[in-house]
Amino acid sequence: MIAFENAAYSYGGGELLTDVSLRLAPGSFHFLTGPSGSGKSTLLKLAYAELVPTTGRVTLFDRDVTSLSRDDVARSRRRIGIVHQDCRFLDHLTLAANMALPFTVADRESDPQDLDDLLAWVGLKHLSGALPPQLSGGERQRAALARAVIVDPDVILADEPTGNVDWEMSLRILTLLVELNRMGKTILVATHDLNLIRQAKSQIQTRVLRIAKHRIQLAGANL
Amino acid sequence: MKPPAAKPASSATRAVQVVPPSGPTAWLTTFTAGAMTFLCVFALALSLASGRLADRWSEALARTATIRLSAPAEQVDLQTDAILSVLSTTPGVASFRVIDDAEARALLEPWFGPDLPLEALQIPRLFEVMEGDPPYDSEGLRQRLLAEAPGAVLDDHTRWHRPLAEAAERIRLLGILSIALIGATMAAMITLAARAALASNAEVIRVLRLVGAKDSYIARAFVRRFTLRAMTGAAIGAAAGTAGVAALPVADAAGGFLTGLGFSGTGWLWPLILPPLAGLVAFSATRRAALLKLKELT
Fold first, then answer.
1. What is this model's ipTM?
2. Which of A177, B147, B238, B289 could form a disulfide with B191 if both were Cys (CB 3.0 to 4.6 A apart)?
């Protein structure tokens, strides 16, 4: 699905990531951890072709990201659900319209029943007509997750999806991610919340990757 | 709470809806298009009027010529006969006539008054020659007149007809150039407005890119909006400009060039093409600006 081969990324003269090799196999669940500023978000951006590696190679659905046109990148993102810590929405559209946005930009019609079911799945059915600024942090996170999965993507990349919510809400979001993984989705979650990782490990098989000194390594059992 | 019932909307309409409905540049585009189209109507009127004038002058002057006969009194009739003989045998002369004393008096009346004693003045005899199709060879006619009637001078009006026609033609070109400049200015203004709108919606664009929107989709949202605004402004400007032209005095009443500045006949339909043309300019300018700006933004 997504693979890194000796990929590195430099910015402003300094190397943020060095010699990253990683393969996200279909149906796998990965956590990416490391201290703030270690390059977790950068790695995720490389994974959805927001950035291109300065050296090495990143392939997205078997295609080198450097060979992708802007339209190819857009098409690839329809196969990737992206969830950010600072959930970005279009504030002038209702929650329902924001949920349907991946369909809208692909010039496809969304099924209102599917939309309803998805909002019910994340517990936001009662807020479908609300505007994003009216939502709480946890509601926004769940809405972002719902938007990420509405087009049935192959991969879900989540950058600190529980960064702005309390523990109870974190567990709820984790449950949603675990359910998605059981449905066959490939998941990569960047987080510095070790408790969340431990909780996930108790439920499903996950691989935990840690970024340290610009390099990626498999974390041991010392989490 | 149920999600709002989805209204059936075209993909273009849905594309427009993903961009926030208003911005500081909304009025600027409409105003610019309106003002530019208003000016364009006058440039169009100037161009069409000068074109008509050039055609009229060319038509009226190119087909007539005058022969002036200045000769001693005892030779006037002799040379008149010679001139008439030459004209009757010249190919390309459709018709000719001698301008009689009454007409000559009418021609000179503005300068000498109504009681002009023609017989007391040494007035040249005048002949009017109408050109045929194909036209006569004026240089050949001039040479034959010189041989047969030495006092005759052929004046085919070229001396003053050409500069007048050229002047009118240049005014027409200036009008066309003005229209082109107005169009270019409108394109530049709309480009600036579109770039400002794109920059102020950078966050919206990021979200759209994140969920898989292509550049062409995002551009479409802006292009449609700017095109509609430009067409609305241009329709208002065209209506106001046409009303302004209609309010000018009619050419027949005053008879001058400036009062002839207007449309005639089907020419009144020309302002109708300005709003779609403004829309086309806005479409091209916004699309180009949007696609370039999108590459900068993401």
1. 0.84
2. B289
